[in-house]
Design goal:
The structure is a homodimer. Chain A is built from 15 helices and 18 strands. By secondary structure, chain A is an alpha+beta fold. In chain A, strand 8 and strand 9 form a beta hairpin.
Chain lengths: 466, 466
């Protein structure tokens, strides 16, 4: 609990309408997309400007109150859970798109803008912002930047950091710092903006950003391809790339999720197949037409049992909705679902998938897989129920094995979700100790009182007499 | 001068054949591509492994000897000039391409690999590494990473940092640190690799890297367009983008350089024209064909006086060679040439170019311009002779005005060349003081003895009793 005078001080900063203190109101801010990690905050503030955030941070720094920044709270790493209590600083009321500049191909927006709102505003101008975390209906740009979000489009278009040109960030001591700006390139000093990106709210609160956008591709075509053999399905992707085609998306769906998609959306897919690939090419109409033809040919040669190009934009949209529905089906398949986020080098995908089925044989826990085959980023998902201790223990063991296997194959702990609370117990295995040490030193200079999203990324060490 | 025993110790580390101490040998390592900044080192070492570099750094750290890392020495910011003497650590003998992985679309290479050697090796595999600093015949990957190099291809394909997946870096204390790896995505911890990128050798020595490559575009087409009016030439670029076409390159050449190109290469260009745009589109053959048609149409409508698509790949290569020749012509036009590197938001290009001609009227110093119109990164160049004090002073005043003007328009000090020695006097104007302060703090934790490329990026403050 925060002392009453501190609540009063916070109220003075943000106004009474922008502060929540009741248990009912605050519960919403106690968890995130994991639905596993949760902790109640002492207070929730919803500031409306960087200046207010600066004043909140000065107060929090003086009083050493933990501050957990939060946007839509859609992250699935525990990253926005206020695990140490204190202040949840929710940015959703800073949701203005300040400028869309078509000549400069840039957008300036506040951190609380919902990604889909940006997408819709850009579509009107025939512009396109590629990073597409699948929480786009609710996630905010600030969270996207802090987590360096990715999504299906990354295989061709890269991740969030590649679209960040400028940033306003409030530091732990309340300093408002400006980095970069509206230019397409910038080589002035260290890449401090990149350091803030992906720092998961532990180094600063990103309040405003300048983003690069691109002209919307005039045409796009979605193609579904069904394979009976996992190896053939995976190999189809480099076969396509080898022809000089970079698909905008290449999604992998396993047998279980394929079945759920078919149950829900009736696409006419054979439920006994092992792999569904969902591909999209985009660009000029002529380019898309010939690339689609080529791709269909290559998919055939790669052993596809069924190839289904979308008839039109409407069917294409329906296919992608079905994919989302399939992913959602994983979440409804168990009380608690851990959607892992390991990424392996693309040439290790086949062996990795084979090893996953071996892990299932060893632990008796099913692993469902949906993910980005185009960049080796899979989401092996494990469903369990924490109340069933025996099952839960086997599920945790399964996750442990998945992560070890990915690391053994030269993969990484997280491709796009971040470490947060969920993956911090694996960090030491996944990173050079010198790099972890350096992260801690950087944290210490930016946030000496450890008030910004404390308890995240790395495990805390026991303190003497603590 | 280094004490003889230290030279002996360095010899033991790298072997007698990898150390240079004579004035004749060392002179080569005393300057860079600016041909303005220079300083003799005390010794040049050419290590052949990260382990050797680690041992050199341990020695240098213990003895507090400045270490200036250097690749091809092609940078034009003074960045690789050993301004404090000490050791030049030249990485050109670490020039092995360790792996080209076509399925994974990655390359693993040592820091001393010359960019063009990588390009040629990749071309054999139908792969493409887009970042293309125009020093590609001599610059090395380590320098490219340390400077976060860009080039004409950046408008479509982005800069060097966007292709870095993994890195081995030797820190000031000799620690060998591994960051990232071979995966397309990685969200494990802070973006330390991005911090090293663009740090200009002041935070660590990048020894090895994993780079993303892409399938080579099957087709490309170059188009030249001549305009009598600068505004029309510049406006043609957003007109093209507005049609959903992202050219791979859009280069801007001014009247002076157009004339030199015509003198040297006889392309049949009217020497009285104000702007030459050099555009390239790439992708699938069908896409390139229709995009070229569209682009020619848009260029016409935008007011182009002459439009000249390259007849074939050979003529296209000749056009790009002519561009390089034009840039080289600037360098031969005066004893010392300062090629600035300011970048402005694209929608400010026309007014910026207009202001440049006003600056010339005010100072009487010609400004020649070649640059990347597609991303607002121009290289306004000023030729002078330091022996002519009056002219030199006016030239320096001209540069000052150029930079102030760019900053006033929301532009940045450097788009791709870095700060080094050349631009450090402008840094305070160009960066938030909080950001400069933060850079210094990061430098202090990574290099407390200030031995790594000292004297670069920011100006040193006078020390009490120093």
């Amino acid at each position: 609990m925060l002392a009453a005078n501190l609540i009063t001080e916070l109220k003075k900063i943000v106004g009474g309408q922008n502060i929540l203190t009741s248990k009912e109101d605050m519960t919403t801010y106690s968890y995130d997309g994991t639905a596993f990690w949760s902790h109640m905050p002492d207070v929730v503030v919803l500031p409306t400007s960087a200046e207010e955030i600066s004043r909140i941070m000065k107060l929090a720094n003086r009083e050493q109150i933990p501050v957990t920044p939060r946007g839509g709270g859609t992250n699935i790493s525990g990253g926005s859970v206020p695990i140490k209590g204190g202040i949840v600083l929710c940015t959703t009321r800073m949701n203005r798109i300040l400028e869309i500049n078509k000549t400069n191909l840039t957008v300036t927006a506040e951190c609380g803008v919902v990604l889909q709102d940006l997408n819709l505003a850009l579509a009107k101008e025939k512009l396109f912002f590629p990073p597409d975390p699948q929480s786009f209906f609710a996630c905010t740009l600030g969270g996207n930047a802090a987590e360096n979000a990715g999504g299906p489009y990354c295989v061709k278009y890269g991740v969030f950091k590649q679209y960040l040109l400028g940033m306003e960030v409030v530091l732990a001591d309340g300093t408002i710092m400006k980095l970069g700006g509206l230019t397409a390139k910038n080589r002035t000093g260290y890449e401090l903006m990149m350091l803030m990106t992906g720092s998961e709210g532990t180094l600063g609160i990103i309040t405003k950003m300048n983003l690069k956008v691109i002209p919307a591709p005039p045409a796009a075509q979605t193609v579904l391809a069904i394979f009976d053999d996992i190896g053939q399905g995976i190999q189809a992707v480099p076969n396509i790339m080898d022809a000089g085609i970079i698909p905008a998306k290449v999604e992998f769906v396993d047998n279980f999720i394929l079945g759920r998609i078919e149950d829900l959306f009736k696409l006419g897919l054979p439920k006994d197949a092992q792999v569904l690939l969902m591909l999209q090419v985009d660009g000029s109409p002529a380019g898309v037409a010939t690339e689609t033809e080529q791709m269909v040919e290559i998919l055939k040669k790669s052993g596809a049992r069924l190839i289904k190009p979308a008839k039109d934009a409407q069917e294409s949209a329906f296919f992608w909705k079905a994919r989302s529905g399939g992913f959602a089906a994983i979440y409804s398949s168990a009380r608690t679902v851990f959607a892992e986020d390991v990424t392996v080098p693309r040439d290790k995908l086949v062996v990795f998938l084979k090893r996953l089925s071996e892990i299932t044989k060893e632990t008796g826990i099913d692993i469902n897989i949906i993910g980005h085959a185009g960049d080796g980023n899979l989401h092996p998902s494990v469903g369990t129920d924490p109340r069933d201790k025996e099952h839960f223990a086997r599920a945790m063991d399964t996750i442990d094995r998945i992560i070890n296997m990915a690391l053994e194959l030269g993969g990484v702990l997280s491709g796009e979700h971040g470490v947060g609370l969920d993956k911090q117990r694996f960090l030491k295995r996944a990173m050079d100790p010198a790099a972890v040490e350096l992260m801690k030193k950087i944290k210490a200079i930016l946030d000496p009182n450890n008030i910004l999203n404390p308890g995240k990324i790395w495990e805390e060490e026991a303190k003497d007499g603590g």
